[in-house]
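Researcher: Hi, I'm a grad student and pretty new to this. My advisor asked me to get structures for two proteins we've been looking at. I'm not sure of the right format, so I'll just paste the first sequence and hope you can take it from there.
Model: That works fine. Here's the first sequence with its structure tokens right after it:
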Amino acid sequence: MKILFVYPKFERYLKKVYAELFNFPRIASLWEYRMPPALGIQILIALTPPDIEWKIIDENLEEIDYNEDVDLVAISFFTPQAESAYRIGDKFKERKVKVIMGGMHPSMIPEDAALHCDSICIGEAEIVWKDILDDARNNSLKKIYGPVLAPPSNWVKPARNVYKIKENYDWHASLVQVARGCPRDCPYCNIPGIYGRNIRLKNMDSLVEEISELSGEEFYIIEDIIMFNSKSIAEYTKELFTKILPYKNKIFLTSSLIFNAKPDFLQLLAGAGTKSIYVTFGFDPISRGIYKNDRKVIEYGKNIIDRIQNEGIRLYAAFGIGFDEDDESVFDAILDFCKKAHIVTSEFFIVTPFPNTPLWYTLKNENRIIHTRWNEYNCSNVVFKPRRITEDKLQSGFLYLWKEFYTEIDHVESLSCFAQKQDNIEKTIEYMQKTKKEKTK
């Protein structure tokens, strides 16, 4: 049996509308830079027996040969890729090739994806993948597999050698999964809906072994759970970062401003090689105070950021806009805070109601969902009716933030926290030199 694993193409919607932003260095653009695919396919390959032949296509890099002789097409994707995934599924089904879909989007809205495939895997695949392969061999695929929550003892190390990361992608960080599940109720997040509300942590020895194989390289821990300010999580994270100290990695983390910001904890993160923390703004109380220009909250936020950056860790800020509390004043409030807090690496996104999240249900019940053209659900488009601002003002405010922030920023410094292609670095330097010349004219 031969399997074709497909990671579908993203629709770069803004490329058609805001072409001037593509003057920025590639990795500065939320919609432009290429990073390695999510871990789903790598996990499936690790679970696949050696007697099964397989091939990967990242449609963002290469075209699909629909005439290729394969027995099963496995498509893993999240919402902005859905229209591409559906197109791919339909074309293979026309050839009578069996198609199975999985990942974030099919798990959250299986009834939509089911129209374009023979079978769907809902949630985690570790327990059901063997059954899927056996059924595919016997031409007896079920319509639905799962949902199942796999215990950490069933998790496998992703097959990391399947992508040529340094050759094909702009950002070189490998992805590392530490945990699944989350008890929080962030309205736009689909993690609890797929992985449950109980936190499951990867076995420490297995995790340390996995990281040791990335010695000296950059990796991205994809869950913000390890930054939670709770005793049990803090103890787990401290043990992990103590054990990986010898490997001299470059670590990229993610969090909100509500995290364990104690000096000893930040020193441990820095000592283990943490170079950047991706911090999302907009939904937590600190962010809301910043957006409202509350002086006390702004000072508190600045203090946390100072503590991070004084340890030599770059804060990479991600500012969400379009929350129900946001009006037109939010754009300048964000830019003003960036200057006060000395933020030099940032991106901006429009709040997006991904299917079957709490935000999705709220907006749907209020008749505020504008459309379900999934390719535009990429955090760069307004797909719902905002409460305190028009759709056009929110879209133009998004563009305004990108242009205003990155017009004055030293891109070389801003992007220095990424391990990226040499070609990108050279083009960034060229862009900066050109910009400086234009300013002196």
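Researcher: Oh nice, that was easy. Here's the second one.
Model: And its structure:
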Amino acid sequence: MEKIIGGLYEGERALYNIHGYEIEDATFANGESPLKECSDLKLNNVIFKWKYPLWYCKNVLVENSTWLDTGRSGIWYTDNITIRNSLIEAPKQFRRASNIKLENVMIPNAEEFLWTCDGVELNNVQARGNYFGMNSANIKASNFTLAGNYAFDGAKNIEISNSRLNSKDSFWNCENVVVRDSVIIGEYLGWNSKNLTFINCTIDSEQGMCYIDNIKMINCKLLNTNLAFERVNNVEAEITTKIDSVKNPYSGVIKAKEIGEIILDEDIVDKTKTKIIVGE
């Protein structure tokens, strides 16, 4: 690979359409799309100060690098990119991109991050921002921390483990979600979704887990959770704590240490289709 070491690059498309380069200790400023339509790049200790730096790229490795807030909408329509040990301050990163790996990455302004992407791996990623992962597919995350509402709206094929999400309205309109050994805090978890599984999770969610087709909860804690499982088809819930209230599940089995109130309106649900077990 050819090498570029150092330098301040300005102007539109500063290094446009280059292939097979290592770039180190460089800064891209005051010019849109500096690395547009490039491939086979290795970037180390690079600073992106302006918009659209990596559009329509292929096979990119970025390490020890920084996107400033002004480097927004930085990675769209790109395939096969890995980012390690980096800081991404700019919002709206990743749109219609594929095969994305983020490892040891901090994203303090993750607004509209990872939209309509396919094939995402997150490991030791910390993010803050609303609408993370909207309409994306085939997502795996571990040691992931998110503070931001409406996470993964419309996404599918999601696996999350050992993570912590503070997110109102997370996992809405989703399909095929498995969350293990994690903490989720936020009202209205999982509405209008299909095939959700939570294993060894702690969940604090007002009116959580409603309007769902097929939900499994295995060895989970529900904290401050009321009016749960409303209009849910086929619930299998094993809850090791108290549920404040359960309202009008359509079918399935709910087992909990204690349930404060059970609401079953005969004009809405057939009571015989749901089995509710209370106690040890």
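Researcher: Is there anything I should tell my advisor about the second?
Model: You could mention this: The chain has a mean pLDDT of 97.
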